[in-house]
C-alpha cells in the first residue's frame, strides 16, 4: 500500500511540475517577454519543476522494481 502511495505522490508532483512549466512558458511566449526578465522566484519554480520532471520517472521505476522484488520474486536488487 505504501508503494502505491509513493507512486501516486510522484504522479501528482509530476503533473504539478508540468503545470508550472507550461504556465511559465505560456505566459512568456504569449507576452513576448525575455526569460531573463523573470524574478528569482519564478526561476526557482522553473528549475525545481525541471528537476522533478527529470528525476521522478527514475524514482518511480526504482519503486516499481522494488515492488516486483518484494511481491513477485524477481531479482532486480538481489546480488
From TrEMBL:
GO terms for cellular component: mitochondrial inner membrane. Pathway: Energy metabolism; oxidative phosphorylation. It comes from the Eukaryota. It is a multi-pass membrane protein. Residues 1-79 form the Cytochrome oxidase subunit I profile domain. It catalyses: 4 Fe(II)-[cytochrome c] + O2 + 8 H(+)(in) = 4 Fe(III)-[cytochrome c] + 2 H2O + 4 H(+)(out). GO terms for molecular function: cytochrome-c oxidase activity; heme binding; metal ion binding. Its cofactor is heme. The keyword Transmembrane applies. It is found in: Mitochondrion inner membrane. The keyword Membrane applies. The chain crosses the membrane at residues 6-30, 42-68. Keywords: Copper, Electron transport, Heme, Iron, Membrane, Metal-binding, Mitochondrion, Mitochondrion inner membrane, Respiratory chain, Transmembrane, Transmembrane helix, Transport. InterPro entries: Cyt_c_oxase-like_su1_dom, Cyt_c_oxase-like_su1_sf, Cyt_C_Oxase_1. PROSITE patterns: COX1. One of its GO terms (biological process) is oxidative phosphorylation. Its EC number is 7.1.1.9. Belongs to the heme-copper respiratory oxidase family. Component of the cytochrome c oxidase, the last enzyme in the mitochondrial electron transport chain which drives oxidative phosphorylation. The respiratory chain contains 3 multisubunit complexes succinate dehydrogenase (complex II, CII), ubiquinol-cytochrome c oxidoreductase (cytochrome b-c1 complex, complex III, CIII) and cytochrome c oxidase (complex IV, CIV), that cooperate to transfer electrons derived from NADH and succinate to molecular oxygen, creating an electrochemical gradient over the inner membrane that drives transmembrane transport and the ATP synthase. PANTHER family: CYTOCHROME C OXIDASE SUBUNIT 1. This is Cytochrome c oxidase subunit 1. It comes from Pseudolevinseniella sp. isolate crayfish 2.
Amino acid at each position: 500500500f505504501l508503494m502505491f502511495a509513493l507512486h501516486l505522490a510522484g504522479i501528482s508532483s509530476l503533473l504539478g511540475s508540468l503545470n508550472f512549466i507550461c504556465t511559465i512558458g505560456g505566459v512568456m511566449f504569449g507576452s513576448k517577454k525575455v526569460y531573463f526578465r523573470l524574478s528569482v522566484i519564478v526561476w526557482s519554480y522553473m528549475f525545481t519543476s525541471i528537476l522533478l520532471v527529470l528525476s521522478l520517472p527514475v524514482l518511480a521505476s526504482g519503486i516499481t522494481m522494488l515492488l516486483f522484488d518484494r511481491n513477485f520474486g524477481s531479482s532486480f536488487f538481489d546480488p
